[in-house]
Amino acid sequence: MTPFECVPNFSEGRDGEKVERIASAARAVPGVTVLDVERNADHHRSVITLYGEGEPLLEAVYRMMEVASREIDLTHHVGEHPRMGATDVVPFVPVGSATMAEAVRLAERLGERVGSRLEIPVYLYGRAARRPERSDLAKVREGQFEGIRESILTDPARAPDFGPSHVHPTAGAVAIGARPVLIAYNVLLSTADVKVAKAIAKKVRTRDGGLAEVKALGFEISERSRAQVSMNLTDYRVTPIPRAFAAVRAEAQRLGTEVEESEVVGLVPEDALLDAAEEHLLLKGFERARILERKVKEAEERRPGHEAIGTFAARLAARTPTPGGGSASAVVAALASALGEMVLAYSLDPRAPAPELAELSGVLAAARVRFLNLADEDAASYEEVRAARKARKSGPEDPVLREAYLAALRHAAAVPLETARTSREMATRIDAVRERTKAALASDLATALACYRAAAEGALANVATNLDDLRAAGEPVEPIEKALAELRKGA
Q1: Does 123 lie in the same domain as 26?
Q2: What residues act catalytically?
């Protein structure tokens, strides 16, 4: 299995609770990690970065789009950034050993599903485009929601690749595609004149004879009374960040203004920042393999697995608050998933593998990764509670500090609840195929099921502890109590 990055953009940048509900839909899918959430009020847009293998990633993005189509109404949406849909664009980006062809296939599969189930017209773009002109996202989004709403009804060139030949009344249309790594990079000017920003954008972008592999627009950032040049560096190896910055600054000075600051939106490849360091510091003969963190990572990757488990066990044994029972439960569930994968690997007929067993093997692999992430998340959530509790002591009646404390407690309860729920689900699925696995592996399967039971029991104990803290703080806990009771009943 190969991993991908996916960076869906949503037309909501002002309501943090809506954005969190969209992101939470992805967090609920085992095997998918939400790496980053960027929200911009002026652009009225959020960029959420996901990482995972193909099947879980498809499920996560689809669930996010379901939430977005309910939560976002484009008929009442006004922002600086061009948009055509509630979920505006969904790019799949191959990383590691993943290929662009695989990313294109993911885009096609998601597009087909979104078009038929959500009844949202889908345009394939970038490397997934089926029409040459649709390789350019700007061309696909031309006219935005309002323009596409009219033209799709009469213009054959506007026919979508999937879905109905009319926009969704409130969720619009969506561009789904595949592309290499892209850097979203903004430069803030010391003027509020958006005409200056637009003139600079036109000067530096590729389509008007500027820098190669650069898309650029000029925007007004009203809350700061400034204009901004917003760029997408579609290949940072061709035009690196320092060159794009220098071009914008030179043109700004020519037009009588200055650059105040710049920002990267979302995540950025490490090499892109190292390019900047090398260019500005004039480093001679610098080898990136000499970077400390890379050397440490290489050393960690060379360590045998039992040593890594030994390290975790040693940290667990230490007189420190984290990691604790919640993290241990998640790690035990990861081991259970690994055992299940092993049992299925031996039970599958390589000449004619049963589709449902092969599918379950993939589900277990994704769950294994998710459980390990939950182990880290559990420790982090406990530290969040400690920090919020400490901060609250400085202002016990401060409503902001109280809400931060309650939010930390809710998160600390949600993490082990997910560990327990997913453990129960995986155990049920493995038990359902028990008769179809090799008899010689019965003890391994029994061990996997026992580990899942232990993981769920330990995680639920952690949920109960956090419930007590929430009750003591006067927070309603009925939904969590109900989930806890259901999971205990299903033990």
Answers
A1: yes
A2: 81
CA dihedral 177→180→181→187, nearest 10 degrees, is -80
Same-domain status, 331 and 364: yes
DSSP 168-210: BTTTB-EEEEE-S--EEEEEEES---HHHHHHHHHHHSGGGT-
Same domain, 62 and 163: yes
The parent domain of residue 408 ranges over: 304-489
Preceding omega of 396 cis (within 30 degrees of 0): no
Q: Is 91 exposed, middle or buried (0-12, 13-18, 19+ CB in 10 A)?
A: buried
Contact 186, 262 (CB under 8 A): yes
* Banded model confidence at residue 491, pLDDT cuts 50, 70, 90: low
Whether the Cβ atoms of residue 125 and residue 177 lie closer than 8 Å to each other = yes
pLDDT tens figures, 364-405: 999 999 999 999 899 888 888 888 888 888 888 888 888 888
Using a 10 angstrom Cβ sphere, with 0-12 exposed, 13-18 middle and 19 or more buried, the burial of residue 305 is exposed
**pLDDT higher than threshold 80 for residue 305:** no
Amino acid identity at 400: V
Mean pLDDT (the chain, rounded): 89
CB 210 within 8 A of CB 283: no
Residues 143 and 190 in one domain: no
Which neighbouring-strand residues pair with 247?
none
Residue pointed to by tokens 């898309």: 215
Q: Can you tell me whether residue 263 is helix, strand or coil?
A: strand
User: Any bridge partners for residue 227, and if so which?
Assistant: 220
Q: Are 377 and 338 found together in one domain?
A: yes
Max alpha carbon distance in the chain (Å)?
79
Does any domain span residue 191? yes
Give residue 253's pLDDT band: very low, low, confident or very high (50, 70, 90): very high
Residues whose CB is less than 8 angstroms from the CB of residue 195 and which lie 6 or more positions away in sequence, other chains included: 218
Cα–Cα–Cα angle for 56, 57, 60, rounded to 5 degrees: 85
Q: Number of structural domains, the chain? A: 3
Q: How far is it, in rounded angstroms, from Cα 64 to Cα 76?
A: 20
CATH assignment of the domain containing 361 = 1.20.120.680
Quote the CA–CA distance of 166 and 148 in Å, as a whole number. 9
Taking a C-beta distance cutoff of 8 angstroms, is the pair 86, 123 a contact? no
**299 falls within a domain:** no
SS3 label, residue 142? coil
438 and 341 in one domain? yes
- Sequence-distant (6+) residues with CB within 8 A of 426 are 333, 336, 337, 340, 363, 364, 367, 452
Report the distance separating Cα 484 and Cα 8, nearest Å.
32
User: Could you read off the pLDDT of 353-374 as tens digits, one per residue?
Assistant: 788 888 898 899 999 999 999 9
Which domain CATH number covers 59?
3.30.990.10
Radius of gyration of the chain (CA): 25
pLDDT at residue 329 in the model: 94
